[in-house]
Write a structure and sequence with these properties.
InterPro entries: Methyltransf_11, Methyltransf_Superfamily, SAM-dependent_MTases_sf
Order of helices and strands: HHHEEHEEHEHHEE
CATH superfamily: Vaccinia Virus protein VP39
Protein name: Ubiquinone/menaquinone biosynthesis C-methylase UbiE
CATH class: Alpha Beta
GO molecular function, one term: S-adenosylmethionine-dependent methyltransferase activity
Largest sheet: 7 strands, mixed
Structural class: alpha/beta
Strand content: 15-25%
Keywords: Methyltransferase, Transferase, Ubiquinone
CATH topology: Rossmann fold
CATH architecture: 3-Layer(aba) Sandwich
Number of helices: 7
Length: 219
């Protein structure tokens, strides 16, 4: 049986506790997935929104071909990101701010690309967050996700279900299935799945890309 989605307050409190040690603990663990998502975004270039930007671990993975805006629910995490920005090493990062991804303040079609690294399995309503990402990305733009996704069958799935019951207080949900992402795209006529691939070398993380279909040309 799947566990319910995480409550917003659980995630906020958990990541406030994680903030002081997040880079040291999660930086190496998430490195391959983080770089894969950023590389995909760099190939598109332009204005990029990082949903769940956290401490700014991904800042090094972008360059002058991009303009990065970051949002996160956790102010202690963003304090770390702002300290990185203050060094002057990341001129492509234009700003970070506290914002709920379920209800973004950005106008429609603001960004060329939206990136959510290790986020979509943690939010209270993943489908609503995906719809908001779809709203703020331009037609022809992409939503890039990277995450561990539920194995669904076999020993790995059983371990993930067992772990899920014991890690919710840490802000983790290891048994989130790809089927939910696929169902969201199928219910949205302007969203198409363009890529799904395991990240080498171990395939622990999966990269998933959706494209907001371009508006039809006027007759």
């Amino acid at each position: 049986m799947m566990t319910p989605d995480l409550d917003k307050s659980i995630v906020e409190h958990a990541y406030a506790r994680w903030a002081p040690i997040y880079d040291a603990i999660c930086g190496p663990v998430m490195l391959k997935g983080r770089r894969a998502a950023a590389a995909e975004a760099r190939s598109l270039g332009g204005k990029i929104l990082e949903v769940g930007v956290g401490t700014g671990l991904s800042f090094d993975d972008y360059d002058h071909t991009t303009e990065i805006t970051g949002i996160d629910l956790c102010e202690p995490m963003l304090e770390k990101a702002r300290a990185k920005m203050a060094t002057g090493r990341y001129p492509w990062v234009k700003g970070v701010q506290v914002m709920d991804a379920h209800r973004m303040a950005f106008p429609d079609a603001t960004f060329d690309c939206v990136v959510a690294q290790f986020v979509i399995t943690l939010v209270a309503n993943p489908e609503q967050v995906l719809s908001e990402c779809h709203r703020v990305v331009k037609p022809g733009g992409r939503i890039i996700l990277v995450n561990h996704l539920y194995s669904e069958v076999g020993v790995a799935a059983a371990v993930e279900r067992w772990t899920a019951q014991r890690t919710r207080g840490l802000g983790l949900r290891p048994e989130f299935p790809f089927a939910r992402l696929q169902a969201w795209a199928q219910s949205n006529k302007d969203a198409i799945l363009v890529e799904r691939r395991k990240i080498a070398p171990f395939g622990i993380y999966t990269l998933v890309c959706f494209e907001r279909t371009p508006a039809p040309l006027a007759a």
